[in-house]
Specification:
Helices cover 40% and strands 19% of the residues. It is built from eleven helices and 14 strands. Strands 1-2-3-4-5-6-7 form a seven-stranded mixed beta sheet. Strands 8-9-10-11-12 form a five-stranded mixed beta sheet.
C-alpha cells in the first residue's frame, strides 16, 4: 500500500478550518479531499475515486482529523458534500460516503448529469472519443486499445443523486464559487477568505490535462485560458490548495507559469507541422511531441495535442488540407498545415 502524505490543517482568514485528506485515487496517484469546518455545516469537498483503497484512505483521514485535531469528523457528522468537478478521481467515492452519512450533494450544473445519469454519460462520451480518435488519425487497431484504457476506470462507478447545483459567483456559507471550465465543464474553484481550493484548475507542479472541446462542450484550451484569467483577477489569495500535489504559495505566479507552458506547447505544435514534408494528423503530431509515453498516457497525449491543435485552428493559424476527403467520407482523419 502506498505511503500517504499526512493530513494537514489550514485556517483561512474567514475563520474556516480546512483539513486536507490524501487518498490513493489510482495506483500511485494521490488525490486530496478537503473537510471544511466553520463555513456552514461540516462540508466535505470531493470524495476520492472509490477505487482500490481510496474509500479506506478517506475514512482513515477523517478518523485522523478526529484523533489528532479533536474535531467532530465522523462520516455521520458531514452534512454537505460539494464536488469540484465530474472526474472520477474526485467523485467516485461518493456512493460510499452517502452510505455513511445523510449529506446533501452539490456540484456545478454542467457536471450534474455526469453524476445523476452516469451510465448515459459514459456511453455518449465513449462515442465522442471514438469519433475523435478517428478524426485524429489513430490506427483502427490501436483505437480499440485506447478505448479499453478509457473504459477501465469507469466500471466501478454508478449514478448517484445530486441535491443542489452551484453557479458561478454563488456564495454559500462563506464559500464563494468560481466557475473555471476547461479541464472539466463544471470545474469550480472555491474561495475561502485568503485560501483558494483550486481543485484541478491550478496544480502546483503539473499543467492540468486538456482535452478538445470537440469531445465535450465547455472543455478545450480556449475555455481553460479564459478561466485562468478569471482566477487571476481575484485578489487576495495567499495560498491555493489543489486536488493533487503540494500547496501553492503563490497562485498568481503559478498561473503565469501554466500559461507560459501552454504557449510553448502551441509553438511546438506549429513547429512540428511546419517541419513535416506533408500535411499531418493529430496522431502524427502526438507521436513526435510525446515520444516516450505508453499505455493510458498515449490517450492523454492525444487529447492534449488535440486541444492545442483545436485552439490553433480556432485562432485561424491552421488549415485542413484534405477537404475533398472530409466532404466525401463520414469521418476521415484531418490533415493540417500552417495557414
Amino acid at each position: 500500500m502506498i505511503e500517504l502524505p499526512p493530513v494537514e490543517r489550514f485556517v483561512s482568514s474567514s475563520g474556516a478550518r480546512i483539513y486536507r485528506i490524501p487518498c490513493e485515487a489510482f495506483p500511485g496517484f494521490i488525490v486530496y479531499a478537503y473537510l471544511v469546518l466553520e463555513a456552514g455545516p461540516p462540508t466535505l469537498i470531493d470524495t476520492g475515486s472509490g477505487y482500490g483503497h481510496s474509500n479506506d484512505h478517506l475514512l482513515a483521514g477523517l478518523t485522523k482529523v478526529r484523533s489528532d485535531f479533536g474535531e467532530r469528523a465522523a462520516p455521520a457528522d458531514i452534512d454537505r458534500i460539494i464536488l469540484t468537478h465530474g472526474h472520477i478521481d474526485h467523485f467516485g467515492g461518493l456512493p460510499r460516503m452517502l452510505e455513511l452519512s445523510k449529506a446533501d450533494v452539490g456540484i456545478h450544473v454542467l457536471d450534474r448529469r455526469v453524476l445523476v445519469a452516469y451510465e448515459e454519460r459514459v456511453i455518449v462520451a465513449t462515442k465522442a472519443l471514438r469519433v475523435y480518435l478517428q478524426r485524429a488519425g489513430v490506427d483502427p487497431e490501436f483505437q480499440l486499445k485506447l478505448m479499453e484504457y478509457y473504459g477501465f476506470s469507469k466500471k466501478h462507478v454508478r449514478s448517484v443523486r445530486v441535491d443542489f447545483t452551484i453557479t458561478d459567483g454563488q456564495v454559500l456559507d462563506g464559500l464563494r464559487f468560481i466557475h473555471t471550465p476547461g479541464h472539466c465543464p463544471g470545474q469550480v474553484c472555491i474561495e475561502l477568505g485568503n485560501i483558494l481550493l483550486s481543485a484541478d484548475h491550478v496544480l502546483e507542479r503539473t499543467t492540468p490535462h486538456q482535452s478538445p472541446e470537440s469531445i465535450t462542450n465547455y472543455m478545450g484550451l480556449g475555455h481553460y485560458l479564459e478561466s485562468l484569467d478569471k482566477v487571476q483577477r481575484h485578489d487576495g489569495f495567499e495560498l491555493a490548495l489543489g486536488g493533487h500535489e503540494a500547496p501553492i504559495p503563490d497562485v498568481y505566479k503559478r498561473i503565469d507559469q501554466i500559461r507560459d507552458s501552454h504557449g510553448r506547447k502551441l509553438d511546438r505544435v506549429l513547429e512540428i507541422i511546419q517541419a513535416a514534408d506533408e500535411p499531418i494528423t493529430i496522431s502524427d503530431i502526438s507521436r513526435t511531441m510525446y515520444t516516450t509515453v505508453r499505455g493510458f498516457n498515449v490517450l492523454l497525449a492525444l487529447e492534449e495535442v488535440g486541444a492545442h491543435v483545436e485552439y490553433l485552428d480556432q485562432c485561424g493559424q491552421l488549415a485542413v488540407t484534405n477537404l475533398d476527403e472530409v466532404e466525401r467520407e463520414d469521418n476521415p482523419a484531418l490533415r493540417y498545415r500552417v495557414a
